[in-house]
Design goal:
globular; 133 residues
Amino acid sequence: LVVVGGQVYFNVMAWAFDDVRQIFGKVAWFLKMYVPLAMAVPVVVIGAPVVEELYFRGRLYGGLAERWSPRFAIGVTALLFAPAHGLSPWALLGYLGPAVLLGWLRWRTGGLTAPVLAHAGMNAAGIVMIYWN
């Protein structure tokens, strides 16, 4: 459900904002042209979710939630997660929803397993859409 929700959110953002659609299109073109599927899967589906979740929902969320509150930590980590992907201001909106969802999973489960698996699922769905489109 989380993976489907994340993909629906990305698709709505791409439909609503031409800037988002253009950037995602460029990323998809680059991956298909220069990155073999055998390399994309370990990096995009495994490596990126583990590293990003360890930092954003692990270290950063943990410190912020302990010092202030889980809601504050979810908001701040979401706002930092989006620009970490280096996209234009409008395209950043495409990352805010899933980032909040991943933060919520961290808070509800108390661990990183659920956010890592959800993040990997969203990335896997993106890889499927890119390579089998």
